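Objective 1.3, modelling of assemblies. Example input:
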Amino acid sequence: MFKATIYVTLKESVLDPQGVAVRGSLQTLGYEGVKDVRIGKKIEVILEGSSREEAEAQVKEFSEKVLSNPVTETFTYELEEVVSCASQ
Amino acid sequence: MFKATIYVTLKESVLDPQGVAVRGSLQTLGYEGVKDVRIGKKIEVILEGSSREEAEAQVKEFSEKVLSNPVTETFTYELEEVVSCASQ
Amino acid sequence: MRFAVTIFPGSNCDIDCIHAVEDVLNASVTPVWHQESDLSRYDAIILPGGFSYGDYLRTGVLASFSPVMEGVKKAAREGKLVIGICNGFQILTEVGLLPGALRRNSRLKFRCNFQTLRVENARTPFTCDYEQGELISIPIAHGEGNYYCDDATLAELKRNNQIVFTYAGENPNGSVSDIAGIINREGNVLGMMPHPERAILDWMGSKDGARVFTSMLQYWKENCGAA
Amino acid sequence: MQLEQTVKSLPHEPSPEKIRDQKLYKEMGLTDAEYEQIIRHLDGRLPNWTEVGIYSVMWSEHCSYKNSKTLLRRFPTQGPRVLQGPGEGAGVIDIGDNQAVVFKIESHNHPSAVEPFQGAATGVGGIIRDVFSMGARPVALLNSLRFGDLKNPRVRYLFEHVVAGIAHYGNCIGIPTVGGEVVFDSSYEGNPLVNAMCVGILSHDDLQKGIAKGVGNPVIYVGASTGRDGIHGATFASEELNEQSEEKRPAVQVGDPFMEKLLLEACMEMVKKGLLLGIQDMGAAGLTCSSAEMTAKGGQGMDLNLDLVPQRETGMTPYEIMLSESQERMLLVVEKGRENEIKEICDKWGLPSAVIGHVTEGNRYRIFFKGELVADIPVQTLVDDAPCYVREEKVPAYYKENQEVRPEEQVAQIDPEEALNRVISSVNIGSKRWVYEQYDHMVRTSTAVRPGSDAAVVVIRGTDKALAMSTDGNGRYVYLDPEQGGRIAVAESARNVVCAGAEPLGITDCLNFGNPEKPEIYWQLSKAIDGMADACRALDTPVVGGNVSLYNETKGRAIYPTPIVGMVGLIQNREHITTQGFKNEGDVILLLGETYAELGGSELQHVVTGNVSGRPPLLDLEKERALHQTVLQAIRDGRVHSAHDLADGGLAVALAECCISGQKGAKVQVETTLQPVVHLFSESQSRVLLSVSAEQAEPVMALARANGVPCARIGEVTGDLQLNIEVNGETAIHRSVEELTKLWEEAIPCAMNPSSDSTN
Ligand SMILES: Nc1ncnc2c1ncn2[C@@H]1O[C@H](COP(=O)(O)OP(=O)(O)O)[C@@H](O)[C@H]1O
Ligand SMILES: [Mg+2]
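Predicted structure (tokens):
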């Protein structure tokens, strides 16, 4: 059993209106030191796979094809083997 | 200048319909090994602060007060010092 | 009776709520900008629907820190009537005036249609003009109306009769116990996802929402109104 | 001669000589001849990189209409009520009481093909800005969508995300999306159409123009800061889609409806305070197009200092700043000295704003960057002197071949009931609830007729009036015969608003066609415009604005030529608002108009053969006009309980829809010399179904006779929830309305969830 954590973030040049709004609010709340906020996703996937290689190949593939939108986003991932997993 | 990365995730006990939907579509796409998907947020904050302690205190505070909702979510964070930062 | 309608950047049902108060009650109603914090002049406060701060981060959260929310909290403490509709409900949960949270609709899609509601508690200041158990038709329009709270909170809501409206028939968003609207323990702060202001005149398709407003007036006349 | 600063080229950019020698201008979509033209406009000087960029976007089809301008002149654009025809952000038509309606439709096809959610969302954002830049309060949105076959997963993805993107923008900004249409046909497989329309209401005194005048007056930038997004979007929208389109993806912008809501409210405040001399949306070709057009219109010059433009990325070049299509931005010109009043309003709404230049004497359009002059162009050469092409027209072979086709023979073997089952459950006829349920169609509490009837109706608060609106366009008809198809597009949308109780006021149109450099495509465009123009003249509905989207092709295959008509009509009195559903048991059903064997391009033909061929229905504009007068008069006399036009699927489908919408039954008898299935599914034009109380049947028939409109009493509304249609005394269709409702409602949800449906 593997646990993959995929981080999907907006490309640099893509506007992040959400981040801009949050930055504005944090600043008005008195956190004036806040200079920039960017909001992305953290996606945890538990998957079975016979080998690390196979799992990794899958994670790469579906991160690119499904979890991220190559037009606006990029992704990175981490993969670890987990011994047992409570989730169904 | 500091860069804080805050991960906001749903509490275990809270159903994640988006995660369920993504799991479903991954499975239909042939990734049958996928057992569970949970979707959270990754929030990157660039902030100025005179010291690491001060920055950390702020990050903790606004993560708790603003970035996460204690009814449904928990958060973790990482903090690193960055030398220079291009964003205005 | 003097109503205030709060306006946050991104509110978009503010004008509809103002019109509803005018059309149904012909009462005085004032738009209040989110940066004002003194609401002492008003007897009732409406937090309207819309997308305050674009619904960014989480619905309602960024608005919940506005200065006007200090005024709303004070009004609530003083026992004045506060009603949050749709985004207003989301703000009230974020600011802690109501328990729980509103999450993304279980089917992950925004949904707009008329919905049949059951009046679960007709003894609140917002529902005294309805019959207990009455079925009414009021539109919903939201992407995040999926009410969530933990089991202990739900038990408490039930014990205290704080569930005011439920979805009768199909649950459009996956909310626990089909909850469409709840009230605080003290009984003066109501949050509801459906939009009563969109069902007040015949041509709108239903007039069932009007009685939320007439109830408030009636309650106020009986309990606070000198005039 | 006054002291002239010379135009600089920036060190890291290709030099003017290199641009010429390596023909770099071609990458921006300029031809050799166009490049030569630019040099002549600059009095022999070679343009630098920024200038080539500016010319290329200003001369793109999207901004200059170079391939369509001469054809568009055929449209009637004048009328006694027209306050503003084509040429500004949106058209404006007087509706009395010092009020006017403002509306416009625009395409966002190419961006939606590569990034459906943001592409569609920003399309909505753009059209809203067009309307409020006129000084109008936007009150309604509509959209017209075309996709390929839903069996293709990519098409399902596009459909799902386009709808979500439209919903996201409209819902968030708080303007109800009250209507539209969706059609699925494999001709749109790689090139979906996303056309968005916005309707606004204006007080006459608030009417604004996109003009820069008054030497020394400041030019003010308001709204989102500029990033590198969408550079060359206008050029991109003017090209065919191909594999490289994927690489042009940075051209896709992200919409921020929250920012636009703030921008909208701020602009409304400025309008109400009378602060503005000129205002224009920064849409396609961004700062370039807005500032150049405003300057050219004002007949003056402009200096812009790009260092003052709010930027969200560092290191942007003049080229990038000028061509960025970042969303949610407006350009204003105000009287000198009133800058602070603008700034106060922007600050209140939390909007960035900056004075970035001023109006100058003469005609030079000059751009400064870090103290250097980086562009100096005679402004009219960007706008008025843009190239203009008249292309070769050629009748396509398919058109001649279709002369021989007999569509009624293709469907002759089908049993009418079977035909109804198949047509009513096709995704084209089936309910569009799956779509419009995702749109907030009630915000602003003025929607009196929600999606699901012929036209949507929005009431105007404080008056008895209401506006009816509809978008229509049948690409199959236009493909089979562009001239007839063009007429039908206008006539059908007018018929839809008439059925709602409105007098048609005027149209906005979006011409979605293939590559105009192909003679057959140019023929389609030219003929369709002829047909539309005829219909507009006959129905007194001038064209007050519109948009052209050409090069809608993938892998060399063009979409069906698809002009979309957005029609707005005025309902004088709310009492006249009429919907399509049957209302009362015992009401008499009247059919106005005549039925011929016209199945070319019909839904039945498509369902049966998987294709369309033959000739589409013919449209007689005189008959159409008489029909509208009759229906409208009957409605205004208070004689009509429901009205529904006959469109796709013909009489059988229209009857089924009236039953479904009203949850009533109907018992109908028709006499015909045609085969039953042909009669019931023919898509002959100029027909409407009315239901009226028994006493009103005769007066309405008399009215129709007086207007020369054929009118038959064909049955009555029943309470038993059965649709029963007899043709020449024999039962042709007998179905329960409940079953029909189910088929109709499930069509799209089933198609979107193909795993649950294994048939075909
Ligand atoms: N994309 C859409 N957005 C909103 N409403 C839509 C959309 N597509 C269809 N509708 C609504 O569904 C109803 C039926 O559409 P349609 O069959 O195209 O009508 P008609 O043939 O009379 O023009 C109309 O009320 C229309 O406004
Ligand atoms: Mg119609």
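Strands of chain A lie at 2-10, 34-47, 73-81.
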